[in-house]
Amino acid sequence: MVRGEARARTARTVMNRTAPSIGRSRIGREVIDSLSIGVVVADRRGIIVEWNDAASRLLKLDDARSAGRPAADVLPDGVVRAVLLETSADGRGVAERIGPAVEGDSPGVMVRCRSTVLRGEGGGRIGAACHFEDVSDIARLEREVENLDRLAMMGRFASSVAHEIRNPLMGIYAGVQYLEKTLDLETNEQETTFRIIRDEVDRLNRLVTDLLGAARPPEIEYAVVDPKEICAKVVALARREADEAKVNLSLQCDPTLPPISIDPDLACQVLLNLARNAVQASPGGGEVRIATRPSAASPRSGILPAAEKPAAMEFVVTDEGPGVPEEDGETIFRPFHSTKKKGTGLGLYISFQIVERHGGALWLERNTSKGATFVARFPYTPPGK
Fold first, then answer.
1. What is the mean pLDDT of the chain?
2. How far, in whole angstroms, is CA 219 from its chain's centroid?
3. Greater model confidence, 321 or 148
């Protein structure tokens, strides 16, 4: 209250020098300070005569240095300064303008700003008032919606391109297989060439599959399956890649977990993607562990917990690689984010979608030692429900 009274006395002194003045009867201190929006008032010469507490916070105005001085000298560069000076100069109000409250400020505050011309009893212009509100959250949501729209457009484009690529790609692959079977390969260079072609076609096929998976979220087809069977299938599918990388695959399944109702093919896709990432991240001689475990309040030996505690089980994949950098922890599940030279940046994104469509969650656990641990949590639904 002391600061407000001091500012009021300063403002009264300034207004007494202004003829005709912007009287205190027009804008009361109690009224404008109670507003959540910022208010700044200048006389017809552009001299600041009044502002409220919200304006002081957003624009960092100082009582001693602001009152009675030109707005051009006091207000920081930003949309409020521009609008108030424009209205004071040409005598026309601004309906709406959005911009930073303080140019170059970090983190920046975006405000929606409007201005009004103040007129005296005879209709003459005596000043200008600018009022503004913080719309940073709204502006951020609008940017996120724009990003989602761009991603949707990219998804539609990627889907159409992927369809056009897949058919000739399969034709190339079939032709290479035919030539490899019918031709007598006389040199190691020829065998190496065929192997390179096969590997590159496989890589392109995975890219096309990832693009289609990202553009079209998969439909869930539930079936009752033993979690150990999914893990065993993933180990078998990842075995060749692990052997080539000289990485050991180990399986550590909880034998007490009962069957679970999920889409076995999609769950396998998630776990296989996590296993391949782990193999690629691990050094030669390292180990990748694939495990299952009950989540909090999950069933053991087929015994269900209380209804208010939803049951779930978790697939866990742990590697002995360098781990995930701290700065990548929040972005690894976003589309097209990849730390691998030949990665598409879609594998974790698609896996996240699959688990989320099951009503579960996929996350990265921070290891106290080396390596990374990814956890895919699937809710447990009793068979037949």
1. 76
2. 24
3. 321
373 and 316 in contact (C-beta within 8 Å)?
Answer: yes
Is pTM, for the whole model, over 0.70?
Answer: no
Q: How far apart are CA 49 and CA 66, in angstroms?
A: 9
Domain boundary among 191, 215, 239: 215
CATH no. for residue 230? Answer: 3.30.565.10
Q: Which helix (H) or strand (E) holds 5?
A: helix 2-16
End-to-end, the C-alpha distance of the chain in Å comes to: 64
Q: Which of 110-114, 118-122, 180-184 has the lowest mean pLDDT?
A: 180-184
Q: Which two tokens stand for residue 345?
A: 């940046």
Torsion of Cα atoms, 150 then 156 then 157 then 158, to 10°: 100
The predicted-structure confidence for 45-59, as pLDDT tens digits, reads as follows: 888 888 888 888 888
CA distance readout (Å), 343 to 175, 203, 207, 283, 334: 26, 10, 9, 18, 13
Domain shared by 130 and 145, yes or no: no
Q: How many domains does the chain have?
A: 3
Burial of 3-19, coded b for 16+ CB within 10 Å and e otherwise, reads eeeebbebbeebbeebe
In eight-state DSSP terms, residue 258 is: P
pLDDT at 1: 42
What confidence score (pLDDT) does residue 211 get? 64
Question: Is residue 254 one of the residues assigned to a domain?
Answer: yes
The greatest distance separating any two alpha carbons of the chain, rounded to the nearest whole angstrom, comes to 104
Query: Which structural domain, as residue segments, surrounds residue 160?
Result: 139-215
**What angle (nearest 5°) sits at the alpha carbon of residue 273, between those of residues 313 and 324?**
90
Helix (H) or strand (E) holding 215: helix 188-215
Q: Mark whether 92 and 157 lie in a shared domain.
A: no
**Would you say the C-alpha torsion 208, 214, 216, 222 has a positive or negative sign?**
positive
Q: Tell me, what's the pLDDT at 151?
A: 65
Tracing tokens 């719309």 back to the chain, one arrives at: 135
What is the average pLDDT across 118-134?
86
pLDDT at 14: 39
Any idea which residue has 């409007």 for tokens? 114
254 and 325 co-located in one domain: yes
Judged on CB neighbours under 10 Å (0-12, 13-18, 19+), 70 is middle
DSSP three-state, residue 95: coil
